[in-house]
Amino acid sequence: MNAKTDHMKPLLIILIFFGCMINAQDKKTEKAKENFNSYAYAEAIESYERLIDEGYSSKEIYKNLGDAYYQKADYNASSYWFGKLFEIKDLEIDAEYYYKYAQTLKTSGNYEDSDAWMQKFANQKNVDIRALKYQQNKDYLQKIRDNSSRYDIKNIAINTPSADFAPSFFGEQLIFSTARDTGKILKSVHKWNNKPFTNLYTSTASENGEYVVAERLSKTLNKKTHESSTAFTKDGTTVYFTRNNSKNGNFSRDQNGLSRLKIYRATLKDNKWKNATELPFNNDEYSVAHPSLSEDEKKLYFASDMPGTYGQSDIFVVDINEDGSFGVPENLGNIINTESRETFPYITNNDVLYFASDGHPGLGGLDMFATKIDDQSELYVVNVGEPINSPQDDFSFIMNEKNKKGFFASSREGGIGSDDLYSFIENVPINLNCHLAINGIVKDIKSGELLVNSTVILLNNNNEVIDEITSDLDGSFTLKGFCGTKEYRLLASKEEYKNGGRKISIKNSEELDSIIISLEKVIQQPVVGTDLIKFLDLSPIYFDLDKSKIRPDAIITLNNVIEFIDKYPDIKIEVQSHTDASASAHYNKNLSERRAKATIAYLEKNGIQKGSVKGHGYGESNLLNNCTEKDKCDDEGHQLNRRSELIVIKSL
C-alpha cells in the first residue's frame, strides 16, 4: 500500500505542475483578451507577445495580435501575425481576416499575394462592396500609376516624433492636431496606442514659407481628451472641431469602454474661442468626427459610424439651416462608402470631395480618393495616386484650389513621427470625368450575320442619350459611358429589322467588352400578284435563246427562293414563263411551257414539295419592251423577255 502511494507521488506532482501551468496560461490569455476587447491594444500586444515568448501559441493569439497591430496601423507587424494565423491547417475564420491580411501585404509591396487573398475574400463575400470594387478594378495598380506624379510633396519642419495630422486652413494660419508631449499631458496616455492625447495647434508660415513654430490653441478648444479635425467659417468666427466624449472636460467612455468622437461648434468673441457645444446629432453610442464645410457653408460633411453605416465609418452630409440648426444627416451611399473605413472628408470650393479610405482599391492602409459630389447619379471615385498615397496610411487631405497648394498627413516611411504633415503643390489637375469604353457587335438573331450600319444608342436610367454610333463593316461598335453610372440601356436599330436592346451594368467590367445585340428581321409579306423574285431583290431568271435549260445564274436565284419558301411554307407561287418574239407565236407558246416546267422541276428537285407549285407558259404575249419583232431589237433587248417569273398566289 505504501509502495503504491510512493509511486503515485511523482505522477501527482507532475499533474499538479501541469495544472498550474495551464491555469497560469489561462489567466495570462484571459488578461490579454480582456485588454484586446477593451480596445487597450498596446497592452494586449504586450501581453500576447509575452505569451509567445513563453512558448504559447493559438489561433486566438495570432488572430488578436494581427488585429491589434492592424488597429494601431502597424501593418508590417500585423501582416506577420496574420501570416502565422493562416499557416494553421484547416483554419476556419471569418473572411474579414482575408481582407485585413490582403491589406497588410500591400505595405511590404507584395501586391501579387495581396490580390490572391483579395480574390479568396471576394469568393466568400461576393456581394461585399469591397469585393465588387476589387472585381471591377483588377487593374487598380495601373490606374493608380496612370493618375500618379501630379504632385510635389514635402515633409514640413513643424513635425515632431509624435503624431501630427488633420491640417486645416484658418486665414493665414495652419491649424493641426498633434500628440506632441508638452509636459502637462504626460499622464494623458491613450491605451489604444500608448501615446499622448492630441491637441489643436496653430502655426503661421515664415517669410520663406516654412512652418517652424507652433502654439497650442486656447483651453476652450483643448481639454484632457483628443481634439482634432477643424473646419472654420470664412469669416473666422465659427469653428467645428472633433473631440472625444468627455464630462467636465475629462475623458469619458461608453458602456463598451470606448470613448466616442463628437463634433463641437465654438464661436470667436473678443478674440477668444467660447461656447464650445456639441452638435445635436452626436451620440454617446457612436462617433461623429472630422467636419468639413461646403463653399456656401450650408452643408457639413463628416465621418461617422452611426446607425445606417455600411462599415466601420462612412462619409455623411448634413444641412446647416439659416438659424444655425441642422437637418438630418444623410449617408453619401455605397459608391463612396464601403464596409471598411471612409473618413477625413474634405470638400473643395468646386464640390470635389476628398476622403481617406481603406475599402477602395489602393496602395495599402488608408489612401486618399476624390469624387465630384455635385451629381450623385454620376459619382466616380478616383485614387489620387502617388506621391500623395503610399503603402501606409495617408489621410486628412486639404487643398486651396486657387493656388493648388495644400497639406495632408501620412505614416509613410522616412517621416519624423508616427504621422507627419506634408505640404504639396498640385501640378496637374485630377481628372474626374472618366469614360467607359462599351464594346459590342450587332447581328441577325437567326443567321448570326453581322449587321453593318446599325444605329446603336446608349441611354442612362433617365432615358437620356449618352452616346450614339453606327456599327462598322464587321458589325462592331464602341460607345462611351460615364464610369459613375451604375446601369445603362443599349438600343440598336436597322432598316428592315425590329429594334433591339439590352441593359448592362458596370459592375461586370468583362461584360462591357463582349456585348451582343441581336436583331430580328422584319418579315414583309409579299402581296398576292407580286413577283417573289423582285420582292426578294434577286436577279431575274433568264433563259438563253430558244432554250429551256436553267442557267447557272438562275440557279442562284432559285436557291434563294427555295430557302425563303422553306422558312415560310405558307407562301404559294405560280411559275409564269415567257419568250421573246423571235419565233412564231405557236412555237413561243410551247417554248414558254417548257421553261415553266423546267423551273418547276428545279424547285421540286431541290426541296419544294411536289405538286405545290403550278406553272404556265405565256409565250410572247407579255413582253417587257417594244421588241415585238426579231430584227427590231438586239439580243440584249430580246434577253429581257426570255424569263420566268414567280408570282405569289398566296401570302403569309
TrEMBL record:
Subcellular location: Cell outer membrane
Database matches in InterPro entries: 6-blade_b-propeller_TolB-like, Bact_OuterMem_StrucFunc, CarboxyPept-like_regulatory, OMP_bac, OmpA-like, OmpA-like_sf, TPR-like_helical_dom_sf, WD40
Domain OmpA-like: 530-652
Chain segments annotated as transmembrane: none
Keyword Protease part of the UniProt annotation: no
Example of a GO cellular component annotation carried by this entry: cell outer membrane
Keywords: Cell outer membrane, Membrane
Presence of keyword Nuclease: no
Signal sequence coordinates: none
Name of the protein described by the UniProt record: OmpA-like domain-containing protein
